[in-house]
Amino acid sequence: MSFPHQYTINASATPEGLVSLSGEKLPELRSAPPAQFGGPGDQWSPEDLIVAAVADCFVLSFRAIAAASKFAFTSLDIQVDGTLDRVEREMMFTEFSIAANLSIPADADTDRAEKLLEKAEKACLITNSLKSTVHLKSTVNRAG
Question: Does residue 98 lie in a domain region?
Answer without folding.
Answer: yes
